[in-house]
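testing teh design pipeline on a random one, pls ignore if ur not involved
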């Protein structure tokens, strides 16, 4: 099978875990970029990357890279690509752009000019233009501009890969699934050791960890990936890869625990787990300070409230209580806390063994590790 240059995009701070995931899938020539990892792979790896990667948002195929001084050069550059290799004139398409440039400041205009260039390519060659469809296009084209460098990419994923298909019910402030999976990977937790999310909300962290333990591909639940609509879609290969992934799923045979003080949260978590096909995680309604640690040297990953809806004293006391409780009750565990509230985090009062920066949507967060002896 022919190899292509490919690009997996991710969230800030997850580039290294994504690269490790790609290497585990057999990707060659991996290289880390800002919020992305480039790699080389054939069609099988393109499909497997969409199906298996837990920390990727999209898998893109760069089809052209050129320098453009202005919109005219951009238009010419996009129009000179042989679009017939990628779509039929009867296929619908959509174009999106992201710009970080002095020359190009309006991403929508860049997208519009690029769309015209693709349409004009077909009009010149076939006498008619393909239709644009932003809802369910056959081909989604992404234009990335950095300074004068334009990269034209085909989006093989369609909807972002964080949309796994299990979380139709959301609690308060749910985490992006890709962020949750990245946090679990960064925590260094190995399936087989106990895993606890004591403030689980809608269950995202526990579900992502459970799917890792079950060796369940995150894409198995999704109904559609963009490459399934492409003119070169290899249905036989895709069915084979999906069957292989489905038969690799195994049961959880160690303790995993998701807890929350709110009955609504535990109920949503149970429903999301059912939809995700996750079994073997205990879900209980309990205050953190009443929770009993499963035996063994486990890992605790939590995303407590950041305090937007609480008084300052209340939130700092809450973080202090969390720290005290970790120190007294969770000896032998490694605890990780994600929070955007840096002042409150200081009140945890334990020595941090690692400090990472992640983004929960637009919120810059610290992801702190505490070894509890
Ligand atoms: C930011 S939300 C967690 C969101 C979750 N990570 C998700 O993806 O849906 C914080 C959760 O902590 C829970 N919580 C707050 N204080 C708690 C306590 N003392 N014990 C247990 N859970 C608590 C809240 O009910 C809320 O569901």
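output:
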């Amino acid at each position: 099978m022919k190899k292509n240059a490919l690009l997996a995009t991710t969230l800030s701070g997850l580039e290294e875990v994504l690269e490790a995931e790609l290497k585990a899938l057999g990707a060659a020539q991996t290289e880390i970029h800002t919020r992305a990892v480039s790699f080389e792979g054939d069609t099988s790896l393109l499909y497997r990357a969409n199906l298996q990667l837990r920390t990727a948002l999209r898998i893109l195929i760069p089809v052209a890279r050129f320098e453009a001084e202005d919109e005219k050069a951009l238009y010419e550059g996009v129009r000179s690509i042989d679009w017939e290799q990628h779509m039929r004139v009867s296929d619908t398409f959509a174009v999106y752009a992201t710009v970080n440039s002095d020359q190009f400041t309006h991403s929508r205009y860049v997208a519009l000019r690029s769309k015209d260039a693709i349409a004009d390519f077909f009009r010149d060659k076939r006498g008619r233009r393909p239709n644009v469809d932003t809802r369910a296009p056959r081909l989604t084209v992404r234009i990335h501009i950095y300074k004068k460098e334009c990269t034209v990419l085909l989006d093989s994923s369609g909807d972002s890969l964080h949309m796994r298909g299990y979380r139709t019910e959301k609690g308060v402030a749910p985490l992006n699934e890709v962020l949750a999976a990245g946090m679990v990977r960064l925590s260094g937790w190995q399936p087989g050791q106990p895993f606890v999310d004591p403030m689980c909300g809608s269950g995202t962290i526990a579900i992502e960890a459970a799917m890792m333990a079950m060796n369940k591909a995150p894409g198995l639940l999704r109904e559609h990936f963009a490459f399934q609509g492409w003119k070169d879609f290899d249905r036989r290969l895709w069915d084979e890869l999906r069957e292989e992934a489905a038969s690799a799923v195994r049961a959880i045979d160690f303790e995993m625990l998701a807890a929350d003080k709110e009955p609504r949260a535990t109920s949503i978590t149970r429903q999301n787990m059912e939809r995700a096909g996750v079994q073997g995680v205990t879900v209980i309604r309990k205050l953190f300070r009443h929770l009993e640690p499963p035996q063994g040297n486990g890992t605790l990953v939590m995303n407590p409230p950041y305090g937007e809806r609480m008084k300052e004293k209340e939130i700092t006391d809450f973080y202090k209580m969390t720290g005290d409780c970790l120190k007294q009750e969770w000896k032998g565990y490694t605890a990780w806390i994600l929070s955007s509230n840096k002042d409150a985090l200081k009140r945890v009062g334990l020595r941090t063994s690692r400090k990472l920066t992640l983004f929960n949507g637009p919120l810059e967060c610290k992801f702190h590790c505490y070894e509890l002896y």
